[in-house]
Amino acid sequence: MSSTTISVDELHKRYAAGQAIDLIDVRTPLEFREVHLPFALNVPFNQLKRSPLIANRQASTANPLYVICQQGVRSQHACKKLLSGGLANAVNVEGGTAAWEQAGLPVVRGEKGFSLERQVRIAAGSLVLIGALLGFYVHPYWLGLSAFVGAGLVVAGVTNTCGMGMILARMPWNHIRFDGVASMDSKGKDVLGSEI
Prior knowledge:
Elements: E1 4-6, H1 8-16, E2 22-25, H2 29-34, E3 35-36, E4 40-42, H3 52-55, E5 65-68, H4 73-84, E6 90-93, H5 96-102, E7 108-109, H6 116-137, H7 143-159, H8 163-169
Parallel strand pairs: 1-6, 2-4, 2-5, 5-6
Antiparallel strand pairs: 3-7
Helix pairs in contact: 6-7, 6-8
């Protein structure tokens, strides 16, 4: 089962024409808070199954559920997950929020934070450096830490899935709320209507 895609220009045309657009952003709440589309709701990838927004959606709903992330990779995985879970119509937004911004389309900007990709680079680089230093000064066995991280990065590149990124996405600093899905609309309210 493969998901369909839509370009950011086509999505914007539909939004500007007044069509009802159901759009979820599967990035972390921290990434979402930094910059997002004005009509997007945040449902982090690792919380798709628990999201009331997804659970309440009928499998037979004719309106597509558009899915976006930073560059289109996580949203593509999310669409596959949603389709295999019984959702009838999940559509991946090609190029993600980055392509939307590059096209000069309107975004909502908030407080800046470290993107998940940047956190992965910092964590991986730190572990490699620590492993090399410990291997040189303490015992050569510590070089295994650097080798392990390097192998993990190769696997992440080949499979286009980053285990370290999935772990970091669950860290407390990547969450705005801890009592479920932090789904915000453009006014900074979650789907239940409370301020975040």
